From TrEMBL:
Record protein name field: Nitroimidazol reductase NimA, pyridoxamine 5'-phosphate oxidase superfamily
Chain ranges of the HTH cro/C1-type domain: 15-69
Organism name: Streptosporangium canum
CDD domains assigned to the protein according to its UniProt record, in alphabetical order: HTH_XRE
Family annotation (InterPro entries): Cro/C1-type_HTH, Lambda_DNA-bd_dom_sf, Pyridox_Oxase-rel, Split_barrel_FMN-bd
GO MF terms held by the record: DNA binding
SMART domains: HTH_XRE
Matches recorded under SUPFAM superfamilies: FMN-binding split barrel, lambda repressor-like DNA-binding domains
Listed Pfam families: HTH_3, Pyridox_ox_2
Gene3D superfamilies linked to this entry: Electron Transport, Fmn-binding Protein, Chain A, lambda repressor-like DNA-binding domains
């Protein structure tokens, strides 16, 4: 019985992007992989579950690994794939940066505490132009990041990135701005409207808002010869 592969991501998109980065049309890739061109078109355009042998032959023809073609490994950190032959580094404008991070997810807060530089991951939401997340009262993002002066906030950095090993591309966005703890009932209600939900357990009733004062980003992708 042929083992079927359920891809953890968009397998068809990865096949097409990798094929295009190598300058191959469907006919040439199909010949390389020993599969029918019509079936290759189906794989690229539909949510298919090809056999393990087919995925292996496609990966070989695309000069990549089965693991990377299926979206990369789950446990190791991203970035193990080989770089593209002609990578291009593009600076992103603030509007594109905000578009990329607008779905929310996991970002990293960088700050200085009493022990020195620190970076912590948080679940965030982009809400009304600000980054919103929740943390615990008394935690590392609470007392150590309060200036004690009304209207004056510590300036911190917030970073979000995405790596696509199979397609040898990715982006990163860096937001700098003041870290403000929601103190009044009005501020708490406004932050709660973002509906941000932390993955970490425990009581995380402290809403924190980062108001961007500087937004920069970069994107790397395969170039064209």
């Amino acid at each position: 019985m042929t083992e079927r592969i359920t891809a953890p991501g968009d397998l068809g998109r990865r096949i097409a992007r990798r094929r295009e980065s190598l300058g191959l049309d469907r006919e040439r890739l199909a010949r390389r992989a020993g599969i029918d061109p019509g079936y290759l078109a189906y794989l690229e355009e539909a949510a298919a579950s090809p056999g393990a042998d087919t995925v292996g032959r496609l990966a070989s023809a695309l000069e990549t690994s089965t693991q990377e073609l299926l979206g990369g490994a789950i446990d190791p950190p991203p970035g193990h794939g080989r770089p593209a032959a002609l990578p291009e580094l593009e600076k992103l404008d603030p509007e594109e940066c905000l578009r990329l991070i607008s779905p929310g997810g996991v970002g990293r807060v960088a700050f200085n505490d009493l022990g020195g530089p620190a970076i912590l991951p948080v679940n965030y939401v982009l809400h009304e132009g600000s980054v919103i997340f929740r943390t615990a009262f008394g935690g590392p993002l609470d007392a150590d990041l309060r200036t004690g002066v009304k209207g004056v906030d510590f300036k911190i950095a917030f970073e979000v990135d995405h790596i696509d090993d199979a397609n040898r591309e990715g982006w990163s966005v860096l937001v700098r701005g003041g870290l403000h703890h929601a103190a009044t009932s009005e501020e708490q209600a406004a932050a709660a409207a973002s509906r941000v939900q932390p993955w970490a357990g425990g009581d995380r009733g402290l809403y924190v808002r980062i108001v961007p004062s500087e937004i920069t980003g970069r994107r790397v992708r395969p170039g064209h010869s």
